[in-house]
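Ticket #4471: structure export looks truncated?
Reporter: QA, pipeline team
Priority: medium

Steps to reproduce: submit the single chain below to the structure queue and open the exported record.
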Amino acid sequence: MKRLLLIAVFLLPLVLQAQKYACVNTEYILAKVPDYSRAQSQLDKQAAAWQKELETKFQEIDKLYKTFQQEAYLLPENLKHKREEELKAKENEVRELQIKYFGPGGDLDKKRAELMKPIQDRVYSAIERIAREKSYAFILDKSGSPTLLYVSDKYDVSDQVLEMMGINPSSATEGEKDVSNPEMKRSSRR
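Actual output as written to the record:
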């Protein structure tokens, strides 16, 4: 038993060294996919429209509330109570609409999944094909992983993923590749 354990201890580093690995930067890849920018733009427009609709409804409720405050001292108690209930009901209705649009699992999340999932599936399919073709044991995503402290550029296959998807990565500068770096993000937005 000791011999088997000793052999395993000595062979484990050799087995681990034999595995091939690579990394990708999914933020960089998605930034280069034209469909992703269009989908993101469409999501932003839809979110802005819903936000404007909600703001308009909240402004209407605010006007009704101010009018109520001005008239409240003139109203009989039963009518005052009725108007308060109507205002609360309208406010609750708008809050429910807000949750429907922007809450967890809301319309915005559904729209995001509808628009982004096909693009993400294409990216992951290309990554998977590269992994199979080049016999990589694993591919890491360096775009936001807090556990990945260093990756040599020679293991970054992001450009290969773009090529596999039919997108020419040569229009990017080397600095654009590392969009997970905040300094690079700032300079690439200028």
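Status: closed, not a bug. The export was complete when the record was re-opened. Leaving a note from the reviewer for reference: Residues 172-190 have pLDDT under 50 and may be disordered.
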